[in-house]
Write a structure and sequence with these properties.
Elements (H helix, E strand, L loop, with lengths): L4 H10 L7 H14 L3 H11 L2
Length: 51
Amino acid sequence: MLENLNTAIGKIKELPLQQPTELDAQRILAIAYFHDGVEEKVEEVWGELKI
């Protein structure tokens, strides 16, 4: 996923929010945003997770 961060971010955002893997997907989303240099999105996702 690190080779194409925008695709990874898009795929994660397509996941239904009620999936049991939502927390893992959100964590991966935050990591993808971090690697893409989008700090404000990282903080937004962590805030939603209350981390």
